[in-house]
Amino acid sequence: MQPVHKSQKLANVCYDIRGPVLEHAKKMEDDGHRIIKLNIGNPAPFGFFAPDEIIEDVIVNLPSASGYSDSKGLFAARKAIMHYAQQKQLPNVGMDDIIIGNGVSELIVMAMQALLDNGDEVLVPAPDYPLWTAGVSLAGGKAVHYLCDEEQGWFPSIDDIRAKITPATRAIVVINPNNPTGAVYPPALLKQIVEVARQHQLIIYADEIYDKVLYDEVKHTSIASLAADLFVVTFNGLSKNYRACGYRAGWMILSGEKKHAKDYIEGLNMLASMRLCANVPAQFAIQTALGGYQSIDDLVASGGRLARQRDLAHKLLTDIPGVSCVKPQGALYLFPRLDPKVYPIGDDQQFILELLQEEKVLLVQGTGFNWIAPDHFRVVFLPNSDDLVEAIGRIARFLESYRKRHGAES
Prior knowledge:
It is a single chain. The longest helix is centred in the C-terminal third of the chain and has 21 residues, at about 385-405. A hairpin with a 5-residue loop joins strand 4 (about 140-150) and strand 5. Helix 1 packs parallel to helix 13, helix 4 runs parallel beside helix 5 and helix 4 (about 105-115) crosses helix 8. The chain has helices at about 20-30, 50-60, 75-85, 105-115, 130-140, 160-165, 185-200, 260-275, 280-285, 285-290, 295-300, 305-320, 350-360, 385-405; strands spanning about 35, 100, 120-125, 140-150, 155, 170-175, 205, 230-235, 250-255, 325, 335, 335-340, 360, 365, 375-380. The chain is globular and about 60 Å long. The strands form four sheets. Strands 2-9-8-7-6-3-4-5 form an eight-stranded mixed β-sheet. Strands 11-15-14 form a three-stranded antiparallel β-sheet. It has a two-stranded parallel ribbon with strand order 1-13. The protein is of the alpha/beta class and about 400 residues long. Belongs to the class-I pyridoxal-phosphate-dependent aminotransferase family. GO terms for molecular function: transaminase activity.
């Protein structure tokens, strides 16, 4: 038989959050090893569960969830999302401007498939959530990475954005709050991005899945609220704010000036219809989630569990020689830097694999988020404090051994 090869469309697609190192971790677990997993932002395994009222609404409505819904989603769910868009001051949003999907992941791929022809370019942040780069590549486009500046709190470099624009550039992706850095962008910076998009007639794709996971009383501004004259697509969902990753309930909101985007919107509607609809049971959670008590506020407040764990993980990591980290203002991650003079790393995936093998801790290397150098990794701070102390203690022990092996003890 002839070998069956994967499509060439997958040549530039990678998703190292669930990549080869994870496969090695699974084999180790099969051999009886206990792995501490700090690789994925999945709240449930760490005791962060969806609020009871959301679960109850899904259960009560299960008898009504056997059939397809409208391809864009249930009326009540989209109505609640529309009201939330109004609260966030997104301009010109009606019921037909909302499409519910099986998580934001499905909608990112859908949005790119509807937009891109071969060779089209999309500006994507570096570091990024890697599904954006993968989605662009899978649709035949080219992801062009603009730099976020660690020395400036991981804020996007406007100069670098401008330098990366070509006649083939169609859109810019803004991840705010950012995954993996935890940066939350102020209105002044967002206005600069809007101005660049305005000058070059770019679509703005705003990934705001962590817009309620905010620390130190930081406020989130939706970039669409600053761009009434532009076409903006905003993504959000239940996974993080409501600890309901497994429900796969996400949505995209089309806002601003849409007249010139009618053909593209027709393409989105076509793709939404082709997959028939998003899963219906989870859609019954959306109205209650958005309109009910926002328990995430308690978790991120000073003294709340997520805030405590962020502070603890940040201190433990930055106490390690040669490790620095911008303290995140949002999301569930830290993105620490390893000083190359102390840790001369050539292949950061191999580095993470060695950490897994020696200390049974699973992380994701920085290049897995399309970062430009092998000098970062992402840490999920969802485990409880005792487990974080244990995990980061193991990381510290591995790094001490690494310094000794490479003659870079400090």
